[in-house]
Amino acid sequence: MADNFLERHHEEYEKRKASWLRKKKHLPPLGRTVEKPEDEAL
């Protein structure tokens, strides 16, 4: 395995990870919805 197998796979992993993180940042965070109170005077 002297053909840089691990290095090549690690580079591919880093590219996939960066792509995934870019896509993830465009999504709204889950579980952080703001609920309006029933009475607007509050």
Give a structural overview.
Helices cover 50% and strands 0% of the residues. The chain is an all-alpha fold and 42 residues long. It is rod-shaped and about 70 Å long.
Q: What's the oligomerization state?
A: single chain
**Which structural class is indicated by helix and strand composition?**
mainly alpha
Shape: rod-shaped
What's the count of strands? 0
The major pleated sheet works out as: none
Content of β-strand: under 5%
The rounded Rg comes to 22 Å
* pLDDT < 50 stretches: none
What's the total helix number? Answer: 1
Output the keywords.
42 residues, 50% helix, mainly alpha, 1 helix, 0% strand, rod-shaped
Task: Summarize this entry quickly.
By secondary structure, the chain is mainly α. The chain contains one helix and no strands.
Topology:
Layout: H1 5-25
